[in-house]
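ok trying this again, last paste got cut off
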Amino acid sequence: MPIIDTHVHYNLPPLSDNWSHHWQRAQAHDVIGTIVIGVDLKSSQLAVSQANQVQNWYSAVGIHPESAQPIDHSVEIAKNQLTVELGKIKALTKSDQVIALGECGLDYFHLPHDQTFTSTIIDLQKWLLHQQLTLAKQLNLPLIIHLRDKKEQAYWDFIQIYRQTGFASPFVLHCVSGPLSFIKQALDLGAYIGIDGNITYPQANDLRAIVKMTPPHRVLLETDAPYLPPVPHRGQTCLPEMIELTGKYLKLTFGLDLLQILENTTTFFPAFKAQADEG
């Protein structure tokens, strides 16, 4: 069954060192297309360059929340630099290969112990997310959203910013996580749910609960390679070819139809439609 990997980092090491080889291996495991995801300006530029070289490759461009760090202890310097980078990100979207903005979002998982500094970083992350939501709205592009928190604040902060910007296009909750009450609200707003190899981990009961409550027509398949390899490869570098194992797990564990997931992908990302029909 043909698979489209909707979130992979061929543009980051170690995959970027020999990305064409990894793509050949992925094709041998039924992968017919991919979206290379940027996490900052440099990786976004490479994502577009790579996507321009391979048929049925596309890219998403954006700035990851972990890039929201004060520079020389100055928030204003950081905002000025990020504003310049966002201008260059916007320029990249002129490429036909760019079909989404991201990954962007909020990540409160590894914050400093200093509460004042933590508050500063959170405010800067929220500002950066607001800027990218506004840009996506302006460009009419869907969003690839990264959210992570040991508690729940990041998830509800996202909902608040989403509503503030009036964003109304589809978005993907990449490598989904969060309380079920948040997931329900996100689904009501039109979210699609990106499932990665960590769904196979024995302790991932919270993720399995999310999959169970997600309508089958909202599920997308991702690797996030080189991160989050599925069982039995946990602890290794995740390779794009491993998405086949995650797909089989979803089918066997939840009865999800891989053809349905392919249709979900071409619905969310219409650029794949013609190639998927041929596949």
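PB: full thing came through this time. DSSP finds ten helices and eight strands in the chain.
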